[in-house]
């Protein structure tokens, strides 16, 4: 049985885990000169953090406000790695030139901010969110995290095909992601949803995150690197 303490502390544990993941992504991005977060995941993530930190912040829990603000600041660093190193990486992997890359990034940012801003109004009438815009943000984040988990796994195999799947990645990042979503807020969301819909979303998130975690671990070991010592 899930204890009350876990239900109360899960968001904070998740916040700490994702903070570690963001620090790792920023660090490895600059060190490896490769963006660690996939482009599609980054534009959605950055838009979510800006909108639900500055425009629709959580009103009742100060710790969540602090966590979201820290995430936003760290995401700026990850965005810088994408803008700085992304054109070369995406040209090598997908044949996309610098101009097309920046157009894609700009359109992705516009679309993502539109989704977050208008989504908060579109879903506000759902009974699950109780007319709370930040609750809408959490609902959007659930689906967004599933998409991110899929994109991280795809990115791993795309870079593996290029010969360096661990560039911009680490077991620390993978482990923090794994704890940050399916093993904390995911459990809380699933047990509170009588329909079973959230169970499907988080089941796929858990499968992808676990797959990614194991893939990164094995890849690092195969290269003679200690997965536990690589931030």
Automatic annotation (TrEMBL):
Q: What are the GO cellular component annotations? A: membrane
Work out whether the entry's keyword set contains Isomerase.
no
User: Which keywords, in A-to-Z order, does the entry hold?
Assistant: Membrane, Transmembrane, Transmembrane helix
Membrane topology label: Multi-pass membrane protein
**Principal location class:** membrane
Quote the Pfam families the UniProt record gives: Pyr4-TMTC (PF25129)
Per UniProt, subcellular location reads as: Membrane
Q: Give TM regions.
A: 12-30, 37-55, 61-87, 99-124, 136-158, 170-191, 197-217
| Keyword check for Zinc | no
Name one molecular function that GO assigns to this entry: lyase activity
PANTHER family, per database record? PTHR42038, TERPENE CYCLASE AUSL (PTHR42038:SF2)
> What is the protein named?
Integral membrane protein
